[in-house]
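Bug #2210: token dump truncated for Endoribonuclease YbeY?
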Amino acid sequence: MSESTHLVVEVETQVPWPLSEQDATAFTDKVLSAAANHLGISGEVSVLFVDDATIHELNRTYRSVDRPTDVLSFAMQEGDEFPDLDGPTMLGDIVVSIDKAKEQADAYGHSLERELAFLLVHGFLHLNGYDHQDEQSEQEMFGLQEEILVELGLVRSESK
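Reproduced locally. Full output below:
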């Protein structure tokens, strides 16, 4: 873990932000900074909040999956080494469907705040090489997600 982490977060909302008590940028920065600190990672992340139609199109275009999903991650650090450039390392983009987040929060019986934080952390972990292709990697990734959400005070038993 690095001694000091610094995360630059850029947020765009293409749909109305659903958490009236919290600003989209402040909420996203808080959640992703907690994840970055937990992992000892610095860099820059762009986050886009969209509706199901938009994420459906992105999922079809980039993953050949013809349905909406809850979160997509587009990592910039995959493959070959990137040269060291001035400024923060661009980790990638996270796209979150507000529609899916609302649907899943209702289905899982927890707050929309927790669901949005879960999706942000999930996307951030994907940007940093974590995946859930097999049982061991899934346990590691989901364990990290839960640790970060607990640090944020967003536990599963939270009521709506």
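Output looks complete on our side. The chain has five helices and four strands. Marking as cannot-reproduce; reopen if the truncation happens again.
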